[in-house]
Amino acid sequence: MSSSPSRVYAARLVGLPIFDPRGDQVGKVRDLVAAVRSEVSQPRVLGLVAEVFGRRRIFVPMTRVTNIDSGQVYTTGLLNMRRFEQRSTETLVIGQMLDRTVTIRGNGPGEGVTGVVYDVAMEQARNRDWVLSRVAVQEPAKGLRRRGQTHVAEWRDVEGLTRREETQGATHLVHALNEMRPADAATMIHDLPLERRAAVVGALDDERLADVLEEMPDEDQVEILSHLGDERAADVLEEMSADDAADLIAELPPETAATLLALMEPEEAEDVRRLMSYVEDTAGAMMTPEPVILGPDATIADALAHVRNPDLTPSLASQVYICRQPLETPTGKFLGVGHIQRLLREPPSTLVAGALDDSMETLRAEAGMDEVAAHLATYNLVAAPVVDENGHLLGAVTVDDLLDHMLPEGWRDRRPRKMNPVTQVNPVTPGVPRG
């Protein structure tokens, strides 16, 4: 294994692309698998858990890894595509070791300190095997410190690595998940052992959990929501987009759905109920009830300020919808659309109404999926307004809403996604972004 760094930290490996000898990307790293038998001898790293295209997780033995550098992993190209199944003698370094409570013993720095594991390093031994060699530990915060002091200790000097914890925390695993795209975090949570999954879900804030749930298959969404208390489940549903929340609530038992809707904020619940009232796979059921809506007296500067919201998807940020009061859906009379590409060419002080596209065809809520697809394709749109019989705006159907309904059931388990490499091989300092 040539040109490999002498020490590689596990948290830095997660997300690295994996290439075959021809330079074609075949997957990305999701975890390390180690045989942890004692706290004295350094555990051998058996291999990598890799996610290949289609979200399938496979095992890549370290004997198949030919090189690890600062931004990628190279393999022999001979990979067994059988789905990875963890054995009882194996430990997932990221999924199971992070956040474990340990004590540093010995005579070196940090002696007697008790803290939690936030990273683990592996090195190549003389016999060419990779072994877990160092453990990065963070002390609890003291006084006014936002973070506790950190230490990196030899494996043999750390006690508690083989002890099973019934109440293992999730702080540092959540930190790693928060740096991932929601779709990637959803995949990792799906494959965690049940007790770790519960700890992670409990530690994620409501907004982040909502983002992750939107990327999960229906059965995962229902399973996770069913283990939350009713109050928190309602809070998480409020953070989800209304169309995704409506789809999820529709999968729940009627009595559970009614309970959660009653606990949600009235305005949020009303949007969800309205979407659930439409026939499945129609524009009304697919639409987003909260596009960017402005009055005719809004300026182009106002419009640009609204679409800068990082929570908007690119399709929702592509245009603003001009309506008369009220500006909450269903609005007053729908006047037209302001395309951001057009607005960027106008002076910021100009009224949006002066650059309005009032010729755009609209969709009715009962329009079927094929009609919606044909409409977006015919007019080269990424979003289209949905109006009622009186010309009031009800919402907007976006191309991503349409794809969610057109793709076959279970598509989230088979989709390929672009890889997102990480370049450093130093331990991840808790609370400090990678740079």
Structure explained in plain terms:
- The chain is of the alpha+beta class and 435 residues long.
- The chain has four domains: 79 residues, Roll (SH3 type barrels); 64 residues; 107 residues, MgtE N-terminal domain-like (MgtE N-terminal fold); 115 residues, CBS-domain.
- Helix content is 29%, strand content 23%.
- Strand 6 and strand 7 form a beta hairpin.
- The longest helix has 11 residues.
- It is elongated, with a radius of gyration of 25 Å.
- The two termini are 27 Å apart.
- InterPro entries: CBS_dom, CBS_dom_sf, Mg_transptr_MgtE_intracell_dom, MgtE_N_sf, MgtE_transporter, PRC-brl_dom, PRC_barrel-like_sf, SH3_actinomycetes.
